[in-house]
Amino acid sequence: MKKLYIILTLTSLISCSTTKSGTQEMTTDSTYGYSKENPIKVGGDVNGPANERNFLSSLSGPNGEAIWFERSGSCCSFETRNSSFGMGMLDRYKVTYEGKKDTLVLYLNMYDKAKLKAPLGFKFKQ
Q1: Average pLDDT of the chain to the nearest whole number
Q2: At a CB cut-off of 8 Å and minimum separation 6, what does 74 contact?
Q3: Alpha-carbon torsion angle 19, 14, 12, 75, nearest 10
Q4: Where are the alpha helices (DSSP H) in 3-126?
Q5: Given strand 104-109, what is the order of strands in its sheet?
Q6: Which of helix, strand or coil describes residue 42?
Q7: For the residues of 75-117, what is the DSSP string, one character each?
Q8: Nearest-angstrom CA–CA distance, 13 and 81
Q9: What percent of the chain has pLDDT over 70?
């Protein structure tokens, strides 16, 4: 199985709210992004996949480490008015960074939009 890891090089175009890191913020909610019940809502039915990649590319490890991510499939159907079908699926991404021994799974919702925050264990690039 061919794995494609993307080194994050894009700067963030996202503004958020909770704990500030520069002008962007990190969440204090341990379920944000780590739970299918509390996915990261990047919004944009048409640009959804690009929004997901842009969001992930805006993150770094807790000490500024480069991160790598790989989409590992979709799961978890839900109703949404922001899809032409009235339903959406969450995307799962495997994420790790330099020095991290394990891989984390983040859940992203490309249909609905909310204020974006860096999940616990990550921060926005500066």
Answers
A1: 82
A2: 89, 90, 91, 92
A3: 90
A4: 48-57
A5: 6-7, 67-79, 87-97, 104-109, 40-41
A6: strand
A7: EEEEE-TTSTTSEEEEEEEEEEETT--S-EEEEEESSSB----
A8: 25
A9: 79
Specify the pLDDT at position 104.
97
Hey, which bits of 40-84 come out as E strands? 40-41, 59-60, 67-79
Which residues 6+ apart lie within 8 Å of 11 measured at CB? 58, 125
Q: What is the pLDDT of residues 64-96, one digit of tens each?
A: 999 999 999 999 999 999 988 899 999 999 999
Pairing mode of beta strands 123-124, 19-21: unpaired
- Phi/psi of residue 29, nearest 5 degrees: -90, 115
Q: State the pTM of this model.
A: 0.80
Name the residue type at position 91: D
- Quote the pLDDT of residue 36: 97
The residue with greater pLDDT, 11 or 86, is 86
Count of positions (residues) in the chain? 126
